[in-house]
Amino acid sequence: MAALPTFSSACSLPRSLPVPPARSRRSGFRCGSIFGDNEDYYVDEPESAGDGFFFSGGKYSDGPSRSDEWFAQGKMVKAYPVYGGKGKAKDPVFGLTLGAGSQSEADLFRWFCVEAGSSLNPKVILVHGFPSQAYSYRKVLPVLSEDHHAIAFDWLGFGFSDKPQPRYGFDYTLDAAEYVSALGSLVDVLVPDKFSLVVQGYFSPVVLKYASCHQEKLTDLVLINPPLMENHVKLPSSLALFSNFLLGLIISQDPLSASDRALTSCGPYMMKEEDAMVYRRPYLTSGSSGFALNALSGAMKKELKAYVEAMRTTLASETWKTRTTICWGMRDRWLKYDGVEEFCKASNHKLVELAMAGHHVQEDSGEELGRIISQIISKRK
């Protein structure tokens, strides 16, 4: 692939969710969960039905929601070029043209970013796991903002960032031609100088691939429950099911499966309804989120083993000079702790155990994790 140009533009959007006024009214469109839940749900019909897919999993209220409040805290940043240009994106099952919210921009993708703290302070970028959102760091950001400039973003395909459809500008592969390069393009926009990098879960191998090529930019790397050992190379069944072409396409369109169940099945996390609605929102308003989840889970199912092995090799190599800390939620139901402590000792990496946290440590122990990260990146070599 040819070298990517450097982009440094940010677009200003209204401080509310990007739903046209004509579509903001409550519709009478009722949906039931595909898993047979007893309760019906409401969705905004003009947005959801426009993609021709079935949605379930939550209620919209007429007043302000936690989603609106979270969106108002962030901004949209443009980075990474849109390749392809094959016309309007269509769904992979019926060939229907997707709604405006599922279409990519003509030039650069839009990423949703939330910042906290003075821009004069040392910078730290927070990278969420799979499947999740920048919202997962909502308890970490205020803690880090006291002494740092913290930035959390939604990956392409998640949260409020663009969700390009496979074969229409982005294919959700883990290789250097897509997610790794996309991360590099965004970082160049957000932080021109040195920074610390924090990443949680299954996106860790992707971030480490980027970091291995840019160690000169990093002051610290913090990995939170990364797939690190040989028994971590397969996705858990609750995530692997999204990769199935037909069944996966159906299940990935259900917000209860794509958000609630995925986040709560991997540890002790008990999700509040107002938080659940933030995670459900992308799946309720457009089919593009489900299609992206299906594509990425398929790519991870195929490529995760090679990336985990490469990550282990990199972290154990003498050429790896970046100070690295691994934080581990001991109640992780997806990734076993066996061998993690021995690997950290052999590779001379610091290990921090969080006894009460599961896979999504920032959800279970957000404030505690924020203090740990702050202490780690505040220390000087």
Automatic annotation (TrEMBL):
Residues 124-364 form the AB hydrolase-1 domain. The keyword Hydrolase applies. This is (wild Malaysian banana) hypothetical protein. It comes from Musa acuminata subsp. malaccensis (Wild banana). The keyword Cell division does not apply. It holds the Pfam family Abhydrolase_1. It comes from the Eukaryota. Keywords: Hydrolase. InterPro entries: AB_hydrolase_1, AB_hydrolase_fold, Haloalkane_dehalogenase. One of its GO terms (molecular function) is hydrolase activity.
